[in-house]
Design a protein that fits this description.
mainly alpha
């Protein structure tokens, strides 16, 4: 069954179609949730809340194509993750005035295995991790991040700078451990 047909069936209350749509999207959306949350259980909570909202709002969705639908679902998951972080008061972002024009090279991170990179990203403070994910992974601008997190663009930039710096330091430590 194609996605457009599944959505149509979901709208009519077909539980089997809802299960199929969930199965089709749950793995990639769990990947999105896990990048923002500190543990598997929190990511699963976000995933379930996100899918609840997906199914609740399918009636209002104007299906264009699979890519647009996937983006819509992904945005719901990201918003759910951010709401959970705010609700639990985990995002405590402070403005850090540093030389933000100085760029940190994180290209060596691309050579890491996905699991290792995810582990490193999940180990950095939640504010850094959130801005890093929104900017580097999701492609949000600092202005969009500032609006989402209710912070200044300068704070967004400083959080990204600190995240990159910390990841680079972690990578250097890892390389020293293995004699690279």
């Amino acid at each position: 069954m194609n996605t457009e047909h599944l959505i149509k069936e979901c709208r009519s209350g077909d539980r089997n179609a809802q299960r199929l749509l969930y199965q089709q999207l749950s793995a990639p959306m769990m990947g999105v949730c896990i990048r923002y949350m500190k543990n598997q259980q929190d990511a699963e909570d976000v995933l379930l809340e996100g899918f609840y909202k997906v199914f609740k709002n399918l009636e209002r969705l104007d299906y264009e194509n699979d890519k647009a639908f996937f983006g819509w679902v992904k945005r719901i998951m990201i918003n759910e993750a951010l709401m959970k972080l705010r609700k639990n008061k985990e995002i405590q972002i402070m403005s850090i005035n540093e030389d933000l024009d100085k760029e940190i090279d994180i290209s060596p991170l691309k050579s890491l295995e996905t699991a290792d990179l995810l582990k490193m990203i999940r180990s950095i403070p939640v504010g850094y991790r959130t801005v890093f994910n929104l900017h580097e992974v999701e492609g949000y601008s600092h202005q969009e991040i500032a609006e989402q997190l209710e912070i200044s663009t300068g704070t967004s930039k400083s959080q990204l700078f600190k995240a990159k710096k910390l990841l680079r330091e972690m990578l250097n430590e890892k390389n020293e451990e293995y004699g690279s």
